[in-house]
Amino acid sequence: MRSVALLIASYLAVFSWAQVTFQDASNTMLRVDNGTQGPPIEEVHYYYDQWPIGIAVASDGRLFASFTRGSFPPTGSVQNLPANALNTSWNGIDFGSGNSSALINVQALEITPALPQRPETLWLLDTGRPTIHDANNNPSMPYAQPGGPKIVAVNITSNDGGGANGSHNDTVYAVYTFPSTVHYPDSYMNDLRFDLHSDVSGTSGHGICYIVDSSNEGRPGFIMLDLGTGESWRRLNQDPSVLRGPWNIPSYVGNPFYLRQKGMPLTGQLEGLDGIQLSPDGSRMYYSPLSTADLWSIPTVNLRARDSDELAELAAHGNVSSHGQRGGDANGFEGDDQGRIYQCMPTQNAIYYYDPGDLQTHGFVRDPRIVWPDGASVGEDGYIYMNINQLYFQGDWNNGVDTRTHPGAILRAKLPNGASKQRIG
């Protein structure tokens, strides 16, 4: 018994002798998470006024950005509607403008390369549903009416070969709108991808656009648009894979997040289907809601099936594939020509990628400056560009109190293994 007591005492003495107290992190011998991983981050551009959302990089290096609309005045284009024309009221119900010839609320951008049948094109996704505020600064979103939600095609071909600083065409050559049976009054178009191959089944041969409907009101799904005929249709309506997670409470910059919209009860993160990305051959669409940690995909042939096939929706639901969890919530997606599916991770201040080759999600780049990466675009220079807009600090999510600090930014990182922009067409 005495020997046991001596043994315990000796262990206590050694522990006491080795202990170092009151040490701070500056000179610690412990392993430390410094918040960084992957290739170096470069700061490309700063935003000192409005907060960006959409981003796209042209072949000549020009950067395009979009800004969703609220009560602030329009800037940058005579096509923008003034703030007092963004919405109208009918029997006390607010509706967004039905103006199909002006921009209302541009959410997302995408650039497709020059092809024999189509110029290099900047595509604008106009939701037709701006956020408006009442006299008490309570936010709301008017319902959409036909004509307002639209896809706009802009020819951005260089006129003189002078690169980003030269002369450019920059003219609208097509506008596509949607019937109320496809884009519901409570729909919200969030992102878009294109396959411009002339031999894509189920299309007119002039390309197809796949669009996210991320409606917070409860009817998320996919909208497809035939670029030759202008016809549109829906798939995966309210499939479990596109729905928001139940009472999803993510953590942003180390703090659990509850959605606090002024004038509304406290809730969790609401958004369903958000990020989408095509495989390089256009045969598979990867996607996920913002408010879950799961990655899904579906063969695009199921999305292209028309309503004339009475089994089209049933077949689409039955062909959804789960790729498991990825380690956090994600919003915008992007892809490269080697098949990686990049996923913006606001809960991790990072971008991850899914590799179809090994069926796993991997960390790509992480940095404390990536405070809500909202949208990304791969350039032909082999960099991925991302908008940083501090979205979870906005007033509309925090009981009217906006704690974002300028500037916002465009950051970029070099892609791995010589990867570059996808060219689906």
Description of the molecule:
With 425 residues, the protein is mostly beta strands. Helix content is 7%, strand content 33%. The chain is built from three helices and 28 strands. It has helices at 2-18, 300-304, 312-318; strands spanning 42-47, 55-57, 63-65, 87-90, 93-96, 106-112, 121-126, 132-133, 139-140, 150-155, 171-177, 189-195, 208-213, 221-226, 232-235, 251-252, 255-256, 273-278, 284-289, 294-299, 321-325, 333-335, 341-345, 350-355, 360-366, 373-378, 383-388, 408-414.
The span between the termini is: 82 Å
DSSP strand tally = 28
Large-scale geometry: globular
How large is the radius of gyration?
Answer: 24 Å
Q: Tell me the β content.
A: 25-35%
Indicate the percent of residues in helices: under 10%
Structural class: mainly beta
Mean pLDDT comes to 90
Could you provide a short overview of the structure?
With about 425 residues, the chain is mainly beta. The protein has helices at about 1-20, 300-305, 310-320, and strands at about 40-45, 55, 65, 85-90, 95, 105-110, 120-125, 130-135, 140, 150-155, 170-175, 190-195, 210-215, 220-225, 230-235, 250, 255, 275-280, 285-290, 295-300, 320-325, 335, 340-345, 350-355, 360-365, 375-380, 385-390, 410-415.
